[in-house]
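Homework help board

Subject: predicted structure for assignment chain

Our instructor gave us this sequence and asked us to write out the predicted structure in token form, then describe one feature. I got the tokens but I'm not sure how to describe them. Can anyone check?
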Amino acid sequence: MALWARAQQLPQESLQKVRAIYGEHFPIEVRHCLATWIENRIWTQEPEEQQRFFVEELVQELQTHAELMLSPELFVTKMKLIEASNLFRRQYSHAPHELYTYMRRCLALEMDVIQNAMGAPYIAQPQTERKYSELITGLQTVRQKVNMATEEIRSLQANIESFSLQYHECLKNKGHINYIQQSGPLTAERRELEACLRVQVEEMERKLNASVAQINQGQMELVDHMKENISTLRQLQSQVLDEELIKWKREQQLSGNGVPMQSNLNTIQEWCELLADLIWSTRQQVNNVARINSKTIVELRQPHLVEMLDDMSKQVTSLLSTLVTSTFVIEKQPPQVMKTNTRFTATVRLLVGGQLNVHMTPPRVTVVIISEQQAQLLLKSDTQSGRGKQPVECGDILNNSGCMEYQPTNRQLSVSFRNMQLRKIKRAEKKGTESVMDEKLTLLFQSEFNVGGGELVFQVWTLSLPVVVIVHGNQEPHGWATVTWDNAFSPPGRVPFAVPDKVTWIQLAETLRIKFCSATGGDLSEDNLRFLGEKIFSLCSRSNLPINPMELNGMTVSWTQFCKDALPERNFTFWEWFYMVVKVTRDYLRTLWCDRLIMGFIQKKQAEEMLGKCPPGTFLLRFSDSELGGITIAWTGEGNEVFSLQPFTSRDLMLRSLADRILDLTQLQFLYPNIAKDDVFSKYYTKPENEMLKNGYVKPVLVTTLPPYMSSSPAYAHSPDSHRNTPSVHSSYFSASTPAQTESSFMDSELFEQIRAFEPEGFDDFDYFGGNVAMK
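My token output:
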């Protein structure tokens, strides 16, 4: 992403710091309008001898850019650019290196602000920047050619008007000759007049013939120039729509999995607006030439010119249609896991709405939800025969209509749906092992745009990213499995919403890493990813796991392995286990994980081997294999016997933080390998309250303790899980019950959804707690 594009995404406080960098000697308007050129030109330090022409080149760029600003809304900016070009020429013509150095220093300061705000160094991407620079240069070049074509049309019209005057003068003289011949006997005087007129007519016809040749040549050259402009516009539009806009949409989809977006929609809008202006101007030029040709005299009309102009008109109108329909985009996607009877939002935007004055007749946008099959039919019918019939809705959305509004400050035509709500949903028939959380639906946004005062009318529509509709919170994990897989692995140009059934482990590992990092703020190491790989592939073969990381990365993971098949000797899937680990880390363990105090992804046997070599009191934190969203403390007791505390889940950590529980347990002394626990956990301990509550009561405090038998006979601390080797110890104030199944066939049924529709809204979070509470 360009440096200036990054700057525009900064929070308001940092944006003010960037604003303060630019002043009279380097106006911020220049920085904004020439962002790509400036960064390409001075990003790499040049020798001083190469900076001699810097001021001349900068002034030329400013003047060219100012000439392109034809819209009344840009008049003030245009004047700023002209003033800046005069200032640069006046003050720095004799010392271009001073201006070069000053502007380079401003960019360095801007980069510092961005790095401090985003917490990551800015890395320039020369190839991308060069590509953008070529695109801007191409748009500016075709703008100049379109302006030249306008001048050629004026010249052609002037030549035709001049020809018409001479032609009628010639006809007038011929009329005089006929009159002389037919009005009586020819006297010497009349013969002399006739001869004089004949000489004039011959001279006029010679000039007229030359004018005809010149006009015909001018017409064909003009048509060739307009054809060339249309061809160039088609190429540039393809680069903007088929490459940059598609890339932005793909980044938007990947951002649903936590990938940071690089492209800037505002920059793409600037390109689209310039394209719209050029295409509309070219269309008017073609129409003007056709009008001039239709009104000119027969002698000047060339064969096939009408057909050529008609074909060009169709081409340029098609370009405009493609531009309008393709730039109707969903700026803010609706939630991809959507719960019924829950409010949600979305925003759609027309990137060329301001440039084409679409807001003069404010368009209304409607939203409906359709199935995957209906989306396929819609795309097929639209491709084959234009606008197809209205697709069948599969649900009822409240507040699903709104008018697009134009914001002059940012030139954006958009509408935000802030209070939509899916009231009911009609499910498609399920096949085989499919569940309701496997079903993908999509929101269809539709509108009609009038361009050119109603001269052209465009029917437009766009589809949201696939959504999964749920009716109960327990369906959320599987819903996110469907969405995560689709976001990560959807191929370009797919039929809605086809995805591969299998991917390589290295592809899935990167998706899981990004998902975890986005949710928790902390990354996964190669060892963490290897642990996850071994965990998911234990479904196939627990004894023949590849030792070579390259071999592991090349293995394929199927959709059923990912989120359908239960892990060995467990009643939950790999995805359910990973999803709950992410959730508990995000909600309660984020800071501990980011400080690398949680080992987390480690085999129980490996933890035993590591702790067995350590002195008593050494402990580590790892995610439980047997309990969803559970984190356990494994520690070395007397005699180097290793114990594991009953895993803490979100319910436990909601009552008392993990750091406070580690403080409570005196048996825990050193974080593996040999770090005193207070040195790293003390900053996370809850500070004790030294005062009574305002109502006069003393607030009790929950304390985690081990049961009494631990101090006398650790051998009694057997695990309730027959598959564990390590003894599992219960904390005294809370006993976790056996975890219930996370998903059953009943939850996938239609009956379950119907029952949920009649339950109280808060029933999802209702739970029972048991156990003893120790108070201090």
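Reply (TA_rk): Your tokens look well-formed. For the description, you could write something like this. The longest helix spans residues 188-255. That's the kind of observation they're looking for.
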